[in-house]
Design a protein that fits this description.
This protein has 536 residues and is an alpha/beta fold. It is 25% helix and 22% strand. Strands 1, 2, 10, 11, 12, 13 and 25 form a 7-stranded mixed sheet that branches. Strand 11 and strand 12 form a beta hairpin. The structure holds flavin-adenine dinucleotide. The site of flavin-adenine dinucleotide (FAD) has 41 residues, from helix 1, strand 11, helix 8 and helix 13. Flavin-adenine dinucleotide binds next to helix 1, strand 11, helix 8 and helix 13.
């Protein structure tokens, strides 16, 4: 058995940051176990590759939820990256952080050190912003963040339409004012995707104290008494173990970190016993508190070649764009599809936005897995930023090779349907604004829905995840919490969870940057140091 100081399970957004930061100390050894491959492919590096990697199980776990009672019993698609970089290797590259009040709420819920004032230095530490240089942004971090490289004229059309509908523009969603519409900044440099692996891990792969094992699927955490001592994993058909002198850190993401805890005997006692798994630590909160951004997409079919589509002229344009990308690293191949968007309120008297919009320069129906995807058009996604519904991840089987049961329980709290209904109407108003008139867009799927009851029926028939599940290893100090504010698993020693699963509540924005921030802060807590202005 090989031994290291730290064993990290999962080389995703959080795992890559952690592996990089912990191995900065030459005196400690770090091992990163990743179930997927190295991701060294144009599908990851060229942003346009996401039109293939999101819909298909190429480097993607391609999970499905259990039937969703409030969504006509549908099983919703849940893509997750299965590759170094994790979901940051297949995501839409949008760089947003949420609202300051999200983090203040984490701190107020009994998590000292996680207020906005205390986490902002960790956002900045990780960030290398190529455009903003001010109090809100970092310029020396590992993660490049840039304005869009697509130069798509449709951005202006969307921004004009939103202003005509009465909404203002935010010049920086991560700056002084989140509220408004704008063009998203992306985790790109020189027109290429900079996943967490490319940004944080690749530059440090030559460190002698860092070992990265790909194709290594962790099966459970090993214990000596109550102390985590290593990890059992499967690689190339063989089962092997790796030892950890100091800590085991789970960064397998919102679905698989709780799965690993449960497989290791940490969770709800009765559920574990039913599957014949010996109980090491009763922790009923493992897998509970699942939250996700449920989303409805309004779709218009339209003719413009600035909109991605597979018509003969669209294909010629694409060939031209491939040449342009090779020469200039700009244009359509740099697309993150959801190029613009915004944070808006359903009611102006609210203290903060409760909806997020993603404006896509393509038809995005059923995650790009339908034939309509080939037509030219535009889509406006609207999602509920802080859902009240709570779901759960649990085990289907004691076999680590089987996917977990994922039940987000979407719309189980009726307040979420009300917010989404209002969001639908708001999004439709923007798409009806004069700026879109020259595109003659025809509303697909929803044109006939006018009454609230019809719109709600459409939501139940068509709403989907916009890929931000969190919360299944919740941080807190009550009995249902899984980790404490230093991200250590309650009731056992030398075991932490560091990824999106520790978020107590879903933040009002996309979750990649917040997850990387969590890992930056965790690395400091593990190393017992702190960046200036923050408490680790
Ligand atoms: C299609 C899509 C689009 C998105 N778009 C955006 C966006 O534009 N902006 C944004 O901010 N967020 C976006 N997100 C969300 C964001 O990418 C995630 O919140 C973030 O990457 C989560 O990071 P993580 O470290 O928790 O998990 P992940 O990055 O998913 O990493 C988990 C890693 O663990 C590995 N793993 C799992 N189980 C095991 C095991 N048993 N053994 C070994 N390895 C294991 C996985 O293969 C994976 O590499 C998107 C997500 C998806 C899927």
């Amino acid at each position: 058995m090989q031994n290291f100081d730290y064993v990290i399970v999962g080389g995703g957004s959080a795992g890559c940051v952690l592996a990089s930061r912990l191995s900065e100390q030459s005196e400690v050894s770090v091992c990163l176990l990743e179930a997927g491959g190295d991701g060294n492919s144009w599908l990851v590096r060229v942003p346009f590759g996401m039109v293939l990697t999101v819909p298909a199980p190429l480097i993607n776990w391609g999970f499905k939820t259990v039937p969703q009672m409030q969504l006509n019993g549908r099983r919703l698609y849940q893509p997750r990256g299965r590759v170094l970089g994790g979901s940051s290797a297949i995501n839409a590259m949008i760089y947003t952080r949420g609202h300051p009040s999200d983090y203040d709420a984490w701190a107020a819920a009994g998590n000292p050190g996680w207020s906005w004032r205390e986490v902002l230095p960790y956002f900045k530490l990780g960030e290398s912003n190529l455009h903003f240089q001010d109090d809100y942004h970092g310029v020396d971090g590992l993660q490049p963040v840039s304005d869009s490289f697509t130069d798509n004229p449709m951005h202006k059309v969307f921004l004009d339409a939103a202003q005509q509908a009465g909404y203002s523009v935010s010049s920086d969603f991560n700056g002084a004012q989140q509220e408004g519409v704008g063009v998203y900044q992306v985790t790109q440099r020189d027109g290429g995707r900079w996943s967490a692996a490319r940004a944080c891990l690749e530059p440090n792969l030559s460190r002698p104290n860092l070992t990265v094992m790909t194709g290594a699927h962790a099966q459970r955490v090993l214990f000596e008494g109550r102390r985590a001592s290593g990890v059992q994993y499967r690689c190339g058909g063989r089962v092997a173990t790796v030892g950890a002198h100091r800590e085991v850190i789970l960064s397998a993401g919102t679905f698989q970190s709780p799965q690993l805890l449960l497989l290791s005997g940490i969770g709800d006692g009765r559920a574990l016993q039913n599957l014949g798994i010996p109980v090491l630590q009763l922790l009923p909160g493992v897998g509970a508190n699942l939250q996700d951004h449920l989303d409805y997409t309004l779709i218009h079919r339209a003719r413009s070649l600035d909109l991605i589509g597979a018509s003969p002229r669209g294909m010629l344009r694409l060939i031209h764009e491939i040449g342009r990308y090779r020469r200039e690293r700009r244009g359509m191949l740099c697309t993150n599809v959801a190029e613009a968007g915004g944070f808006l309120k359903t009611d102006a008297s609210q203290p903060r936005p409760d909806l997020q919009l993603h404006f896509c320069v393509a038809i995005v129906h059923n995650h790009g897995r339908s034939l309509q995807h080939l037509w030219h058009g535009y889509s406006l996604h609207v999602c509920v930023l802080r859902p009240a519904s709570r779901g759960r991840v649990s085990l289907a089987s004691s076999d680590p090779g089987k996917p977990p049961l994922i039940d987000p329980a979407y719309l189980s709290d009726p307040r979420d349907l009300d917010v989404l209904l209002r969001g639908f109407k708001l999004a439709r108003r923007i798409l009806a604004a004069p700026a879109f008139s020259p595109y003659g867009g025809r509303e697909l799927f929803s044109a006939a829905a006018v009454r609230d009851t019809d719109i709600c029926a459409l939501i139940r028939a068509r709403a989907e995840s916009i890929y931000h599940p969190v919360g299944t290893c919740r941080m807190g100090r009550d009995d249902a919490a899984v980790v404490d504010a230093s991200l250590q698993v309650q009731g056992v020693e030398r075991l932490r969870v560091v990824d999106a699963s520790v978020m107590p509540t879903l933040i009002g924005g996309n979750t990649n940057a917040p997850t990387m921030m969590i890992a930056e802060k965790a690395a400091d807590m593990i190393r017992r140091r702190s960046v200036s202005g923050a408490s680790a």
